[in-house]
Amino acid sequence: MKKYHLMLLIAAVAGLVTAGLIIGVWANRTAKDAEAAHAAVYASYEELLAAAEAAELPVSEQGVLVGSYSLDDLGLGQAARDAVEQLYTASERMTPEEFRALSLREKRLWNEEKHAIEREAELPIQSLDTSAVLADLGMMERKAAENAYMSYESGVYRVHDEELGNVLREDVVTASLREAVDGLVLSGEMAALPSLEITDHDCYVLPEVTVENGGFNPGGALYEAIDGMEITVQFHTGTEVLTAEELRRLVSLDPSGAVVVDEAALEALLGDWAAVYNRYDTPYLFDSYAGGVVPIEFLSCQYEVRTPDLREMIRDMLLNQQGGEIAAPYACYDKNWEAFAIRDTYVEVDIHNQQITYYKDGKLIVNSDIVTGRVMANWDTPEGLYSSYDRQTDRWLIGEDYAVFVKYWVRIWNAYGLHDASWRTIFGGDQYIRNGSHGCVNIPEAAMEKIYANIEDGTPVLVFDYHPDEAE
Length: 472
Prior knowledge:
Layout lengths: L1 H53 L1 E6 L2 E7 L6 H11 L8 H5 L3 H9 L8 E2 L8 H8 L10 E5 L2 E5 L9 H12 L3 E2 L9 E2 L20 H10 L3 E5 L2 E5 L1 H5 L2 E3 L5 E3 L1 H15 L1 E10 L3 E14 L1 H14 L3 E4 L2 E4 L12 E5 L4 E6 L2 E7 L14 E4 L1 E11 L2 E12 L2 E5 L10 H5 L5 E3 L1 H10 L5 E5 L3 H4 L1
Parallel strand pairs: 1-7, 8-14, 16-24, 22-23
Antiparallel strand pairs: 1-2, 3-6, 4-5, 8-9, 10-11, 12-13, 13-15, 16-17, 17-18, 19-24, 20-21, 21-22
């Protein structure tokens, strides 16, 4: 009996040992399976985190790379990591070492749950920050767009095309960046974010005025400019005014936008004017220093309007679209029809204003008060157009009732000349009426010294006595 019980006990113990061995093997296999499954899930978790760290958005402009921007550069890094973590439970995010430390029961229960390995995380873009991209774009050289416009130069209207620039519309750039990352999904297989070429999104500020919308009308611009014009032509004996209406009939536009002057119509107009304002056997008009333009009665002149010059003056005003007043140019001829003019180099003796003026090569050398012949004694300085000669220094001038010493002497006709008068302290005014000379022109010494130093024999000397009050 005892032997029988012993055998039963031995059998029972052997069964228990076998069962323990079986249970141990099963438990070990269950733990290994759970750990392997967890390792695969954890690896996918790490892959998604690595994808979030490695993801970059290449941004280019006109094919040139501006930069590659990480999710952290775009303000999306933390949001991406948070999105990945939300895909995994706390136990799935355990490191393999932490998971192995769990109890068999915990591992078994974990393994009984469903754990997908391949997972994807949608990228949240609420925190998108485009400042880094915009800063890099802002460092590039920019040129503003230019509007189309119409110019008028050298008598031609031109419509200039608009020019595109590359100044950025930051709102469009921001929107294109948002579009580039919106809806992107993080996965373990993702190597990079798709690139963004900003010029695919009309990112530049465009011209506001284009040839198409500008409504440019060269013909209308021409007539609008002329509407405010008026050309006044002053002739010696009258005035002509070209109104805007008359000017419009003289101009038009050719297909290239050039202003064309009706030469035939202008020539006919100038011919009509010349017929009215040409003057023959008329006093020479001299532009005096003190009195302006004065008629010189003892010089007879044939005046003809220089129509070619006047035509060019009017054409220039039309082409420049500038109205105003002009003096008609004249050609002056003497009685032999030789060109005649007193200009550039000459001396004028203005008896009425008691002034002498000397020009040399168009430059004013002297303007001074003088004293001419005594009117009350009938010693008037004779009017006329003379030429200088017989220049002398330190000479005596001797007459029936005078003998005076002068430092500078320039003869102009017979006994009449220009000279200094050291005995005088007052020049100009009405001195010549009662206290004038014997007919010569008395000049202050300093002024006469300049005249003597610069004048040459043969210099024209015009002596005239024009009284504007009497002429009126």
